[in-house]
Amino acid sequence: MRTVNLSAGDIIEAVCTRCRSILNHTIVAMVGERVVRVECNTCHGVHNYRDKVEKKTPARGETVRRTASAPRKPGKGQGAEDRKEWESLSPAMDRTRAIPYDMEGSYCVNDLVAHPVFGLGVVKTVIKPNKIEVLFEQGKKLLRCKL
Ligand SMILES: [Zn+2]
Q1: Interval between CA 94 and ligand 1 midpoint (Å)
Q2: 47 neighbors 29 (Cβ within 8 angstroms)
Q3: How far is the CA of 39 from the centre of ligand 1 (A)?
Q4: 17: domain range?
Q5: Residue 90 has what DSSP assignment?
Q6: Domain tally, the chain
């Protein structure tokens, strides 16, 4: 129950039908304890009092967007296996032994490669004539090289 005693002339917050927002209104008419008519202090329009509780009607043109796509899961399958392998190899990696990656370089299996983008990696496979498969922290990458 409302305990505040309101009377005509008082200021009350109400939904203005013209301004379409909650604004201060001056009470114009009351029936008993109930406010029936108010005057908008902004547009000075007089209208029936509507409680602030407005029905939730989404603005036209605004569609309620629900992202249907599930949150992206961290790579499973091959990616996860690469990651596991990387984690088991990583502690043994001697960064000082890493060879800076160079397209013109030549590499052997188990060589450590320092790539400017992917970081430290281990040569897993040498693919003739001119490619190496390197395991980096983010997975296996195929890189060019000179054998
Ligand atoms: Zn108004």
Answers
A1: 73
A2: no
A3: 8
A4: 11-48
A5: G
A6: 2
For the record, the structure tokens of 134 come out as 């390197």
47-79 pLDDT, tens digit each: 999 776 555 555 555 555 555 555 555 546 778
Cβ-based neighbours of 114, under 8 Å, separated by 6 or more:
95, 98, 99, 100, 101, 120, 121
Q: Residue 36 — pLDDT band, cuts 50, 70, 90?
A: very high
Residue 1 lies in a domain: no
The model's pLDDT over 77-136, given as tens digits with 9 standing for 90+, comes to 778 889 999 899 988 888 899 999 999 999 999 999 999 999 999 999 999 899 999 999
Burial 103-137 (b: 16+ CB within 10 A, else e): eebebeeebbbebeebebbbbbebeeeeebbbbbe
Ligand 1 geometric centre to CA of 135 (Å): 67
